[in-house]
Design goal:
Layout: H1 8-17, E1 19-22, H2 29-43, E2 50-52, E3 61-65, H3 72-80, H4 83-91, E4 97-106, E5 114-117, E6 125-126, E7 130-136, E8 148-150, H5 169-172, E9 196-198, E10 206-210, E11 215-217, E12 227-235, E13 240-241
Amino acid sequence: MYQRDLTDQEIALYNADGVVLVKDAVDPSWIERLTAFAEAQLNNPSQLCNDGNPGQERGRMFTDRYLWRTNQTVYDFISQSGCARLAAQAMGSESARFYFDHLLIKKRETATPTPWHQDVPYWPFRGRQIASIWLALTPVSVEGSGMEFVRGSHKTEHFYLPTAFGASGEKVNSWTGTGEGVPCPDIEADRAAFDIISFDLEPGDALLFSAWTLHGAPGNRSSTQDRFAFSTRWLGDDAIWDPRPGTDPSVNPAEVRVPAGQAPLDNAIFPRFY
């Protein structure tokens, strides 16, 4: 099965911009498998799903996560697709541990934006070597809720306070906005003041970006194209387990078999795939 490496230029772009477009990131066979999985998940979500406007063909923002624990397709993808190696290469890390998977769907004509945010304050880790691979399962444009990034924003030392996502976010993500950090800048109020970059993607293309990079996405304005994406989150050599107040409680700290402040060397919960 096809697996690829990052080029020196791609690694340089990741380091400079905090995000890089990776064309044909995985073998094409994964797109068909993951798309079928995503369609099924819409009709049979997990307890961690966040579903605005359930069951509708328009105006629906749907997310689900931590599916690797129960779904064989997801486990096969994270362990066999080569994403772990791509993440390690971008981060400059000798290893890549898996944190969680995230299915992200915006049906056509869904006005709900993904708010501007930075991932690392949401997550119970610290370190510079923490990254995501956001894989397009459908064609993606900015009009169709493609991701936007503030170029170079990964170089900050700021933690920006998490905010809830989507129509049902206040209920599902009630822990947000309570931890360490400062408010995220109001990027939409003055977009010209920020170096905003975006990308068009075809199925199989991916955006590989630092957990420190500010990013968001507009609503899906397309009247014909749903946006399906599947994101995986990766921990590099310098990541430490840091279950501080105000971070995502989906991983129960009592189940993690390493103390706070140490590397997350717990293969049952954070398996190393590279």
